[in-house]
């Protein structure tokens, strides 16, 4: 007679033939592939949405004359320790596309900005964002989660849209600078808010340390932007 599939508590808890099903290797999170469906990630991201490191204060007060590395991260890259929770993962998967979507905006600011300070700020921020993106992608890779973007095609708060970029490409002079600084401020403010939520609800020390670095960077970048707006020359 053929044997039936095991039933009862042992089957429900992963026991088969007296052996316990292997657990995920520490430091990686393969369970995420089945337990965090895209809709769950979107819901987590929506909660976060609801809610680099400046080297000195002088660089912030005089941002339009600061060296390129003034707003960039200087500390070693924090990486996940294996205790990632859904908030950590949702934050990483949201921040990466947010940063990717702001790069074309910074490219336009660097090449088409009317005020010299606008062009300088855009160039500096683009350099630091490339570094930040590398840190975020490395942290996501360490969790074991695939690099797929669950927010592809979504225009979420803080993400520069294709329509906004099209308008910028046709704008000129002071009108361009006004549009550029407005979109940049929206991105910086929203990513700062999302990052604060990660520090409250995240679990992994490495991801939270990276979030703390990003939050400090955003505060300084917003100060630099305000300085440029006050004195664009």
Automatic annotation (TrEMBL):
Identification of the protein by name: DUF305 domain-containing protein
Pfam family, one: DUF305
Domain of life: Bacteria
């Amino acid at each position: 007679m053929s044997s039936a599939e095991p039933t009862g508590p042992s089957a429900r808890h992963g026991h088969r033939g007296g052996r316990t099903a292997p657990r995920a290797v520490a430091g990686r999170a393969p369970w995420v592939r089945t337990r965090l469906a895209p809709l769950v990630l979107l819901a987590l991201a929506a909660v976060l949405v609801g809610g680099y490191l400046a080297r000195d204060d002088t660089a912030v007060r005089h941002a339009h004359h600061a060296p390129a590395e003034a707003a960039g991260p200087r500390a070693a890259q924090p990486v996940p320790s294996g205790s990632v929770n859904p908030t950590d993962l949702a934050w990483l998967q949201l921040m990466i596309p947010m940063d990717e979507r702001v790069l074309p905006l910074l490219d336009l600011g660097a090449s088409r900005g009317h005020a010299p300070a606008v062009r300088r700020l855009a160039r500096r921020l683009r350099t630091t964002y490339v570094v930040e993106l590398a840190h975020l992608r490395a942290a996501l890779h360490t969790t074991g989660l695939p690099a797929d973007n669950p927010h592809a095609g979504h225009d979420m708060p803080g993400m520069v849209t294709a329509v906004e970029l099209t308008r910028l490409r046709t704008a000129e002079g002071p009108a361009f600078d006004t549009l550029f600084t407005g979109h940049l401020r929206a991105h910086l403010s929203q990513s700062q808010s999302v990052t604060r939520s990660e520090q409250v609800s995240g679990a992994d020390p490495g991801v939270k340390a990276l979030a703390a670095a990003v939050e400090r960077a955003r505060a300084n970048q917003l100060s630099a932007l305000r300085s440029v707006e006050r004195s664009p020359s």
